[in-house]
Amino acid sequence: MSMDLAKPTFEHVVLVNDANRPIGISKKIDVHHAATPLHRGFSVFLFDRSGRTLLQQRSLGKVTWPGVWSNAYCGHPQLHESTLDAMHRRLDDELGLTNVNLTVLLPDYRYRFAHNGIVENEFCPVAVGIVDERPQLNPDEVHAIRWINWRALLEEIGRESDYTEWCIEEAILLANDPAFRTFHEALRDP
Fold first, then answer.
1. What is the pLDDT, as a whole number, of residue 10?
2. How far apart are CA 15 and CA 66, in angstroms?
3. If DSSP codes are grouped into helix, strand and coil, which group holds residue 47?
4. Other beta carbons less than 10 A from residue 141's beta carbon
5. Distance (Å, whole) CA 185 – CA 190
6. Is 156 a catalytic residue?
7. What is the CATH number of domain 12-185?
8. CA-based radius of gyration for the chain
9. CA-to-CA distance for 180 and 8, rounded, in angstroms?
10. Average of pLDDT values for 37-51?
11. Active-site residue among 94, 120, 122, 170?
12. pLDDT tens-digit profile of 63-91?
């Protein structure tokens, strides 16, 4: 763990304290294990104009939750990178999309979940955006995608566990968020 203020030359995560203040960095490849330290992340839900949301089946080669269905994409901001800039970088990296306006609706979301001996432990702002392009999948990150009606997703997560825990919790939080309801009602949910 280091806290060099220069821009690191390796993919990393920003380690933080309980107040979400940086206390160091760690190589991304080294940080996720049974005792994952608290770090910064983000999570994004994407929608089409009809109100469906994009789900991602995580690559089978991922260390964390391989092959599990989740929201459109997630990631980690790098040191000296804004969360929105990181969201746009990963949007292009994972889904090949560049022209999406993102809005953070849950800026203070925090979670800790374990799966198959690996822990995720993040401060994780949650954003939404509208997609007009066809995603171009990066197979190192994404195994498959599917579009689902928002209400159908909420019903599925209420009876299935085939989703990442953060996707389930974030979807429920969004469904109860007035700003999200305004955002989603402006779309034509079939």
1. 79
2. 23
3. strand
4. 18
5. 11
6. no
7. 3.90.79.10
8. 16
9. 35
10. 97
11. 122
12. 899 999 999 999 999 999 999 999 999 99
Q: What angle do CA 66, 160, 35 make, to 5 degrees?
A: 40
At 54, which helix (H) or strand (E)? Answer: strand 52-58
Q: Amino acid letter at 42?
A: F
Residue 1 pLDDT:
46
CB 68 within 8 A of CB 144: no
Residue 165 in this model has a pLDDT that exceeds 70: yes
Residue closest to 80 by CA, chosen among 170, 181, 8: 8
How many angstroms separate the CA atoms of 82 and 150, rounded?
A: 28
For residues 190 and 174, the model is more confident at 174
The question of whether 122 is a catalytic residue gets the answer: yes
Tell me the C-alpha distance between 145 and 79, whole Å.
29
